[in-house]
Amino acid sequence: MIDITISLKGNEMLVGGKLVHNTVxxxxxxxxxxLPSDQEISVNLSAVTGCDSSSLAFLTALMREGKKRxxxxxxxxxxxxxxxxGRVSGLDNVLPITKR
Length: 100
Fold this sequence. Notes:
alpha/beta
């Protein structure tokens, strides 16, 4: 069973559940299916209950898809563990993270 939920309400995409190695591909597929073109979307990660380094791969893949669709993405409410992995890998300077 995949423990991940993705929903889009207005200009906010809410990601919930465990964003880990065995769920990121399902999360990416669900996110891409909902991702609009030519908009600005805030990806809210406040409902993420677990993450690992593959969660950052999810964020970068989602950014690539957003760029193809001319949709500007911002990531908010990054879990502390994901933030730490991002700082160690240097992706915190690349990803559009909104500190809230």
